[in-house]
Design a protein that fits this description.
By secondary structure, the protein is α+β, with helices and mostly antiparallel strands. It has 2 domains: about 80 residues, no CATH class; about 140 residues, no CATH class. Helices cover about 55% and strands about 15% of the residues. The chain is built from 11 helices and 5 strands; from the N terminus they run ββββαβαααααααααα. A 5-stranded mixed beta sheet has the order 3-4-2-1-5. A hairpin with a 3-residue loop joins β1 and β2. α1 packs across α2. The longest helix has 25 residues.
Length: about 240
């Protein structure tokens, strides 16, 4: 039985959890198994910083963002950690970062986005002839998680406690989320190009240059030399 302090997500095949390590150290990912189900255990120190993140593979957001906006504590230690992080994260910076990341998962422009996100974008996967499931994944990530949470934070000036809370406020995004999720499950294209166009319109309607600046700053604080990466590509 895998021990953990915070549940992030669970489905019939996978489970993502957070384990608070009393001995401290860095944020790191452990692959485990429980009853035939794959379990990803994110190990974090008790004093995890706002910008600490998994380095291998690189993450598109700090681990604190995941815990604060999606985590379901199952222990006292987990509750204390989530409460502490929610007080430390700036909702405005959070909204700007995830909104710009959402744009990157849609368009994958390497002039604006880290390459590890750009190659997983909808446009990149459509161009490469990827399967329906592969094309649906970035749209699902935007419609079901990043965009609703960004809009919630912008509207209320505070972090959502879960994607469910954020989606309850946006019926259209909930419907787009359902279409992408169904495409992932069935492997059938339920109008993914239409979903991409509508999500692009919704993101562009609130996106500004300051959001890209905030994203670059957050990546730098995470230890990802985003600007340097782009400069090297252009040289």
């Amino acid at each position: 039985m895998v021990e953990y302090d915070i549940l992030i997500s669970e489905d019939p095949h996978d489970k993502d959890v957070v384990k608070v390590d009393e001995r401290g150290g860095k944020v790191w990912l452990e692959r485990a198994e429980e009853g035939g189900k794959r379990v990803d255990v994110i190990h974090v120190p008790e004093d995890i910083g706002v910008y600490d993140a998994i380095r291998d593979p690189p993450s598109y957001q700090p681990t604190s963002y995941i815990i604060a906006t999606e985590g379901v504590p199952v222990t006292r230690r987990g509750r204390e950690l989530k409460d502490r992080l929610r007080k430390r994260i700036d909702p405005s910076e959070y909204a700007s970062h995830v909104l710009a990341v959402a744009w990157c998962f849609l368009h994958g422009d390497v002039r604006r986005c880290p390459s590890f996100i750009a190659r997983k974008s909808f446009r990149a996967r459509r161009k490469s002839g990827a399967t329906v499931v592969k094309r649906a994944i970035p749209l699902y990530r935007v419609a079901c998680d990043l965009l609703p949470k960004a809009l919630f934070a912008k509207k209320h000036g505070e972090l959502p406690s879960s994607r469910a809370e954020a989606l309850r406020e946006n019926r259209e995004l909930a419907e787009l989320c359902f279409r992408t999720y169904t495409s992932m499950l069935d492997g059938r294209d339920y109008g993914l190009d239409e979903v991409f166009l509508r999500l692009s319109e919704l993101v562009n309607s609130v996106l500004s240059e300051k959001d890209f600046i905030a994203m670059e700053r957050v990546f730098q604080r995470m230890g990802i030399d985003y600007a340097g990466q782009l400069h090297r590509k252009e040289a």
